[in-house]
Write a structure and sequence with these properties.
The complex is a heterodimer.
Chain A (H helix, E strand, L loop, with lengths): L18 H11 L9 E4 L6 H8 L3 E4 L4 H11 L8 H6 L11 H5 L7 H14 L6 H12 L1
Parallel strand pairs in A: 1-2
Chain B lengths: L5 H15 L4 H13 L28
Classes of the chains: A mainly alpha, B mainly alpha.
């Protein structure tokens, strides 16, 4: 069965399967009706499933992680509650930029990790995802898309 | 033989599933963007609170939470 969390990047030690139990146990200790008055602190965001459901349940969520990959999830879907990528935003990631851009995937990880074609797409996409062509919230979503 | 970890197996399955969809790269990216859009949610309104049911399936190792 498809889960809401399928769109989150896989994370070693991720809690997505335990999330229902964690919040059910919390509800047995802290009245569900009071959750929106509490702040949920997640100092090690990881894959983001706990913070994401805490926000959906009404908590004000403060989350953090030293790993950029995790922080990206936080910026893209925890801090952001309304912005999504349009088809035009997705199409932008495929456009060849006119200016020079970093080609890290192509130069360092092709062909050992990515095919030449995939590496070029990732470099192009990352260029657009980190450029000012998109507003901040969409930039994080675009990077998360490329990570997926 | 080295056993593949579960997440690697899941990842392979996911890649196979996406390949079976036979989507063009841009359609695949649009599909992933739509999946990610499902994660963009508002905080639940206190007046619309749903109960949090205890999961039916027993978790083997509750102490590992």
């Amino acid at each position: 069965m498809k889960s809401l969390y399928d769109a989150l990047p896989a994370y070693l030690g991720g809690k997505r399967r335990l999330v229902p139990l964690i919040f059910a146990l919390l509800a047995s200790r802290v009245p569900r009706s009071s959750w929106s008055h509490f702040t949920f602190i997640d100092p090690f965001l990881g894959g983001g499933s706990i913070s994401l459901l805490a926000k959906a349940y009404g908590f004000e969520v403060h989350c953090n992680d030293v790993a950029y990959r995790s922080a990206l999830v936080g910026h893209a879907v925890i801090a952001n509650s309304s912005v999504t990528l349009s088809d035009a935003d997705v199409a932008l990631l495929f456009r060849e930029p006119e200016e020079a851009y970093p080609r890290m995937a192509e130069e360092r990880f092709s062909p050992s990790v990515f095919s030449h074609e995939h590496a070029r797409f990732l470099d192009r996409g990352l260029h657009w995802a980190r450029s000012r062509a998109l507003p901040e919230a969409k930039r994080y979503l675009a990077e998360l898309l490329l990570l997926r | 033989m080295v056993r593949e970890d579960k997440s690697r197996k899941q990842r392979k399955r996911q890649v196979r599933r996406l390949e079976n969809l036979e989507l063009s790269p841009i359609s695949l990216a649009a599909k992933l963007a739509n999946d990610i859009a499902l994660l963009v949610v508002e905080r639940q309104n206190p007046e619309e609170q749903e109960e949090v049911p205890m999961p039916k399936r027993k978790v083997k190792d509750e102490e590992s939470i």
